[in-house]
Write a structure and sequence with these properties.
By secondary structure, the chain is mainly β. It contains 3 helices and 26 strands. It binds manganese (II) ion. Manganese (II) ion binds at residues 78, 81, 83, 88, 125, 127.
Length: 317
């Protein structure tokens, strides 16, 4: 799981421990992601399956894609399909994906890169392994997060942000035992590169064995930690967690995560996606690739897609 790394964590800006008056968030629930198959046949772990939209709001879905090692010509993707009413955020830790969309957005996403696509009013896109990965095979691992848009922004113009590995904001915890990669939002006064429509924080954290991570967390946000790999404890009551689990924190001002001294994973690290945002608190009607507020809006989306109003597949790229 390479993404962005550094040789010496101690040279990074440190996130101070929360002051003693800050209330540590207890854990509401730790749920386990089931394993499934998506698109043209790529493997996913459905991170939010054991939760509800009320708890994950403003996020809708989190799919961990892999880790999987493909043989040559075996890598899979998701060919042309539409979206409306939300954003897809794809972060890769291993492998390469090629993205194309009907709005002219596109490019190769490599290890450590994030692609933030606002579908808004409607877009068609194509998510495939790169020619190189398809030809040679190899390790592929990433995460796709769906971020909801409020009613007033659901039909906004599509937008594409490429957040490259080099633009991730790197920090460490108070004693230099965890690497924090900030993708979007704010941690300890540092601002991530991603531009968001509603207030959100999104980070990938690598915790070395026996690390204790204590972060202040915006009290009006929810707080979720999805465990890509490794084992440890979280929250004020130190609830145990392991790989492919979602830790959902209750209200408070700060979060606590501790990694075990000995890990069963080969890397010996705990890999966590930490995310939270201000809940949108609107009705959510989800049908396939569309996320709207009402059933009527979903029917409209299906009709608009069928009539080609969400764009057309580009003839060449
Ligand atoms: Mn898609």
């Amino acid at each position: 799981m390479p993404s962005a790394t550094v040789n010496n964590l101690l040279l990074l800006p440190r996130v101070p421990e929360p002051t003693p008056d800050k209330r540590l968030r207890p854990v509401f629930q730790v749920s386990t992601a089931p394993h499934g198959v998506e698109g043209a046949g790529f493997e996913v772990w459905r991170g939010f399956f054991g939760s509800t939209i009320q708890r994950t709001d403003p996020f809708i879905f989190l799919d961990q894609m892999g880790p999987v090692t493909y043989e040559p010509r075996e890598a899979k993707g998701a060919p042309w399909h539409p979206h409306r009413g939300f954003e897809t955020v794809t972060y890769l830790t291993d492998g390469e994906m090629v993205h194309r969309d009907s709005n002219g957005g596109g490019g190769i996403i490599r290890e450590g890169d994030t692609q933030w696509m606002t579908a808004g009013a409607g877009i068609l896109h194509d998510e495939l392994p790169s020619e190189r990965v398809l030809g040679k095979g190899g390790l592929s691992h990433g995460v796709q997060l769906w971020v909801n848009l409020p009613r007033t922004l659901k039909l906004s113009p599509p937008r594409y942000q490429a957040i490259e590995k080099s633009s991730l904001v790197l920090m460490t915890n108070h004693d230099g035992t965890s690497l924090i990669r900030l993708i979007a939002g704010e941690i300890s006064g540092h601002q991530g590169a991603g531009s968001t429509h509603t207030p959100i924080t999104y980070a990938h954290i690598t915790m070395y064995p026996g690390s204790e991570l204590k972060l202040e967390w915006e009290p009006t946000y929810n707080a979720l930690a999805y465990v890509l790999d490794g084992e440890g404890w979280a929250g004020s009551e130190m609830a145990p967690f392991k790989a492919h689990q979602l830790i959902d924190f209750n209200a408070g001002d700060a979060i606590l995560i501790r990694s075990k001294d000995f890990q069963s994973s080969p890397t010996q690290t705990v890999e966590i996606l930490l995310l939270g945002g201000r809940p949108i608190k609107e009705p959510v009607v989800h049908y396939g690739p569309f996320v709207m507020n009402t059933k009527e809006e979903i029917m409209e989306a299906v009709e608009d897609f069928q009539k080609g109003r969400m764009g057309v597949i580009p003839s060449s790229w």
